[in-house]
Amino acid sequence: MGKIPYILAFVGLLAACNDGGSPSSGYQRPGNFQPGNRPYENRAKTDNKKITNMTITNETQAVANIASLLRGYPGTDKNTDNLKIADMAIQIATGRDDFDDVSADVFKPALYVISQDLYSTCADGANVSTCVANWRAKNSSEMKKRLSYLREWSEPIDISTATFLSTADTELKFTVDDAGNITDITVNDDSFKRDGTTNRFVSGNRTLTYDSGSSSSFKLSYADFGMYNIATDDVPGEKIAFAGGYKTKMADITKIKNSKMFSGIAVGNVTNGDKEFALNGTAQLNVENIESTLHTTLQVGFDNWYGFTVNQTGTENPTIKFTDTANTGFDPTGNGNVSMNVGYYGPDGTPTEAVGTVHYTETDGINMDVAFGVH
What we know:
34% strand, eight-stranded antiparallel β-sheet, 7 helices, alpha+beta, single chain
């Protein structure tokens, strides 16, 4: 299969209203709201989560979200470029402390969308850089929540630029409309149109089902993993593992100087002749950087089948060892062929999450496809 590279690199809108009452859906901004206001809502984001929990935000959505956060803003210097305000707010939340070259009509609204308290404390102070740094230090937990929220709702990131590679040598890509709704998926050059607001996509008599391994309890921001299959005339096809994410958020794995342990979820499918199991379990990925050589160890555990450990050093071929804990009626020898692909992602070039696939085959025997996601 094509490899997820270790690249060294770094509207159907529901505008927020102020008619009072409680929110009917959507994400509530952390912190205090203006009395009587409802939190920002966006139907496209809600519907897209039926497919993937990745962060998906187009410019229209980001602008609308910042407008919502600026409700009640008391200053007269509000900039009309909400994307600049969003970008500055994220810079402040990530640690920027030099604002000499930033105009007040960007800086002050940015403080406000982070926190009304931050705005009232620092917007008109004599030394704003020191004030912001001190507030950030005293409110580090709150700032972390603000940053997470802003990156999900106010930082434009185009899902059509994300690429997912599968163990069947296919490439999956989404298409979105101007409102930010996922409308289509392509498998190589084969296009399928979304079936309403479900995780299914249709082309003639064929239906592609995209089953993400993430959920509301285990979310990744910039990558996704799972299984897909294409049914023809309602007859399901082969279940295929996929993993991938945003090219612009691919992380430099060499930034891990010693070691890092990621934990998460594994999903998959294993067949042997006419026997088949769906696999759901846990995954741990340990990455060690020893003398500039990466040593990767993936441990996967399942309740209904064998767990396994895959080891890989640098670009050498991986090895696999199964745990002898299953009694399923079909058992791996451990002598088959294994391949592993891993991609690392993060907001600023530093790896904070990873996804990948493992494919294992034995001649006239076990065929296993697994996708995993960890953070």
